[in-house]
Specification:
Belongs to the arrestin family. One of its GO terms (biological process) is signal transduction. With 300 residues, the chain is mostly beta strands. It contains two helices and 16 strands. The strands form four sheets. Strands 2, 3, 5, 6, 7 and 14 form a six-stranded antiparallel β-sheet that branches. Strands 8-9-10-13 form a four-stranded antiparallel β-sheet, with no helix packed on it. A four-stranded antiparallel β-sheet has the order 12-11-15-16, with no helix packed on it. It is elongated and about 85 Å long.
């Protein structure tokens, strides 16, 4: 499990008998602050944990702390006190939806904050002058051992054709990192009497936003329209390479991004679930095209 540990420095004379607390919170904001109406904020507190730091509930020397906390406690003196939080396993990672070019403020974001404040009790109203904030990020790491490379086969039947079209698509591995090309091997065996006019390969980002219902937003973050044709009775085997990058999606509203601190740059959101889709267009009549989606793979 993930943990957060730190040290808070207090001045008992400034506190004047008040207590000092540290709070860890995870907040889901789904609207700008200036959109808040009728006293209802467009935000939801997903998780809140509060620890009393001063006066200490446990003797400072007897409390468990990390090596870094021990160094800070020795350096800062007797008015420094350690704190410790443990993340629940089910909390989401830091992520946000990219606003449009003309949007201002945060549109939709999951963010984490460590806040220290002084008050008579943790339920009392806290003044801004008695509070300090520190934004943090929760990131996920890919497992060290990669699984089997995803692969799938599917068949398309056509009216007035005795034989079908077979499509096989596979990736060269299961896990990809930011900036790494994704190689998709597509194998088409067209035993039908129809002509395949085009093969389109895309990497789709699927973001599920949970408000009053589970709303999913699908955005193609990398796409190649090859123009490759497969005549009736012919076959094609080819590897297509796509590299999803934020720089190619910078102006697109609603793209999910990894959480960032202040004005630091970030990446396209790391996947908790990804869907790879291959499109094949077939010509049924002279000016009529029909699109068929084949789901290649879905993995966590």
């Amino acid at each position: 499990s993930l943990t957060i540990d730190g040290v808070i420095l207090v001045d008992p004379e400034v506190l004047k008998g008040k207590k000092a607390f540290v709070q860890l919170s995870c907040t889901f904001r789904y609207g700008r602050e200036d959109m808040d109406v009728m006293g209802i904020a467009f935000r939801r507190e997903i998780y809140i944990a509060i620890r009393q730091v001063y006066p200490p509930i446990q003797d400072r020397e007897q409390s468990t702390h990390t090596k870094m906390q021990g160094k800070l406690l020795r350096k800062l003196g007797d008015n420094a006190f350690p704190f410790f939080f443990e993340f629940p396993d089910n909390l989401p990672c830091s992520v946000g939806l990219q606003p449009g070019p003309n949007d201002s403020g945060k549109q939709c974001v999951v963010e984490f904050e460590v806040k220290a404040f002084s008050a008579e009790s943790q339920e009392a109203k806290v003044r801004k002058r008695s509070t300090v904030h520190l934004m943090i990020r929760k990131l996920q790491y890919a497992p060290e051992n990669s699984g089997t490379a995803p692969s799938v086969k599917t068949t398309r039947e056509f009216v007035m054709s005795d034989k079908p079209l077979h499509l096989e698509a596979s990736l060269d591995k299961e896990i990809y990192y930011h900036g790494e090309p994704i190689n998709v091997c597509v194998n088409v065996t067209n035993s039908s009497n129809k002509n395949v006019k085009n093969i389109i390969v895309s990497v789709d980002q699927v973001a599920t936003v949970v408000l009053y219902s589970n709303d999913s937003y699908v955005r193609a973050v990398a796409l190649e329209e090859s123009g490759d044709a497969v005549a009736a009775g012919a076959s094609l085997k080819k590897v297509y390479s796509l590299t999803p990058l934020l720089v190619c999606n910078r102006e697109r509203r609603g793209i999910a991004l990894d959480g960032k601190l202040k004005h630091e740059d970030t990446n396209l959101a790391s996947s908790s679930m990804s869907i790879w889709v291959v499109f094949i267009r077939t010509l049924h009549r002279k000016h009529l095209e029909n699109e068929k989606r084949f789901l290649l793979d879905k993995f966590k």
